[in-house]
Design goal:
cysteine biosynthesis; transferase; Rossmann fold; cysteine synthase activity; 9 helices; alpha/beta; TrpB-like_PALP; 2 domains; binds 4'-deoxy-4'-aminopyridoxal-5'-phosphate; 34% helix; TrpB-like_PALP_sf; 4-stranded parallel sheet
Length: 308
C-alpha cells in the first residue's frame, strides 16, 4: 500500500504523455508533460512550495507571516496550496479580468484576493503588491517576476524529470513564457545535460518577445509585458508568436482527439511544437509542457468556437 500523508507530496513527477493524435512528418515524436495533474492544477505548484519555504528559511517572514504575490492566478493557487498546514497567510493581487475559477480556487485554499484594474496589466498588480508589502507587518512579496527561485524551481524539478522520462533523448524543448521561469529554468537544465538540444519559446500575440507591442490577449498565463532579468535570451533559439485563435483551436483539438483537457497556453505550446515538427530531423523527439487544465477556463468559453 502506498499512501501519501500530505498534499504537498503530490507536487511534481507529473506524467509524460506522447501525443499520437496529430499527424507528424518523418517519424518525429511529440511528448507533453501534463502539469495540470499537480494538486493545485498547474505547473506553478512547483514554484509555490519553493517560494514559501525560501521565505521562511531566509527569514523574510516568520512562520506566521504573510506572503503577497501579484499573479494571473496559478501562482496564487500554488502559494495558497503551499501554505496549507502552515500558519502563513497568502494575499493574491490579481488583475480583475483574469479567470474567475482561478480566483475561486485561491479563496477555497484560504487566500485573500485583492483586485487591480485589468487595464493596468501585471505591472499594476506588481505595484499594488509592493505597496501592501510595505503596509503590512511580517509580510513579504516573493515576486515571481524577479525571484531567481522561479527558474530554479524548474531547473531542479521539471528539467531532470524530462531527461529521466525520455532517457535523455530530447531534440527540441518548447515552452510558453509568462514570467519565463518555466522556460528559463528547464531550458537551462536541458542545455547543460543534452548537447545540441534546441530550446524554443512560445508567446501569444500582444507579447513583446518578437518585437510586438504589449496588448490584450485571451490566452492566459503566457505573454510578457517586459523581460525579467533572470531570463537568458540566448536560450530563445526561436520565438513563436501564436494568435489566440490558433491557441484555442489547438486546445479544442487536444480535447477532441487526444482527451487532454488543458488551458489555451497548452494549445499555443502545441501549435509551436507542431511547427517545429515540420522542420525537425527524422525521428526527432520534441517535448513541450501543458501548464494547466481546461476547467478553470470554462466560464471563458474555452471550448466554444467563439470564446465568451
Ligand atoms: N501557462 C499558464 C496557464 C500559466 O499560468 C503560466 C504561469 N504564468 C505559464 C503558462 C507560464 O509559466 P511561466 O510564468 O513560468 O513562464
Amino acid at each position: 500500500m502506498e499512501v501519501y500523508r500530505h498534499i504537498h507530496e503530490l507536487i511534481g513527477s507529473t506524467p509524460m504523455l506522447e501525443l499520437t493524435a496529430f499527424p507528424l512528418p518523418r517519424r518525429v515524436r511529440l511528448f507533453a508533460k501534463l502539469e495540470y495533474t499537480n494538486p493545485g492544477g498547474s505547473i506553478k505548484d512547483r514554484l509555490g512550495i519553493k517560494l514559501l519555504k525560501e521565505a521562511i528559511a531566509t527569514g523574510k517572514i516568520t512562520p506566521k507571516g504573510t506572503l503577497i504575490e501579484p499573479t494571473a492566478g496559478n501562482t496564487g493557487i500554488a502559494l495558497a496550496l503551499a501554505a496549507i498546514g502552515t500558519d502563513v497567510k497568502v494575499i493574491c493581487v490579481v488583475p480583475k479580468a483574469f479567470s474567475i475559477e482561478k480566483q475561486q480556487l485561491m479563496r477555497a485554499l484560504g487566500a485573500v484576493i485583492v483586485h487591480t484594474p485589468s487595464e493596468h496589466g501585471m505591472k499594476g498588480a506588481i505595484a499594488k503588491a509592493k505597496a501592501l508589502e510595505q503596509e503590512l507587518d511580517d509580510a513579504y512579496c516573493p515576486q515571481q517576476f524577479s525571484n531567481k527561485a522561479n527558474p530554479l524551481a524548474y531547473y531542479e524539478t521539471l528539467g531532470p524529470e524530462i531527461v529521466h522520462e525520455l532517457d535523455g533523448k530530447v531534440d527540441v524543448f518548447v515552452a510558453g513564457a509568462g514570467t519565463g521561469g518555466t522556460f528559463s529554468g528547464t531550458a537551462a537544465y536541458l542545455k547543460e545535460v543534452i548537447p545540441g538540444i534546441r530550446t524554443v519559446v512560445v508567446e501569444p500575440e500582444g507579447s513583446i518577445l518578437n518585437g510586438g507591442e504589449p496588448g490584450p490577449h485571451r490566452t492566459e498565463g503566457i505573454g510578457m509585458e517586459f523581460i525579467p532579468d533572470f531570463v537568458n535570451r540566448s536560450l530563445f533559439e526561436a520565438i513563436y508568436t501564436i494568435s489566440d485563435n490558433q491557441a484555442f483551436k489547438r486546445t479544442r483539438e487536444l480535447a477532441e482527439h487526444q482527451g487532454v483537457l488543458v488551458g489555451s497556453s497548452s494549445g499555443a505550446a502545441l501549435e509551436a511544437a507542431l511547427r517545429e515538427a515540420e522542420m525537425a530531423d527524422e525521428g526527432a523527439h520534441i517535448v513541450t509542457v501543458f501548464p494547466d487544465g481546461a476547467e478553470r477556463y470554462l466560464s471563458k468559453g474555452i471550448y466554444e468556437e467563439e470564446p465568451l
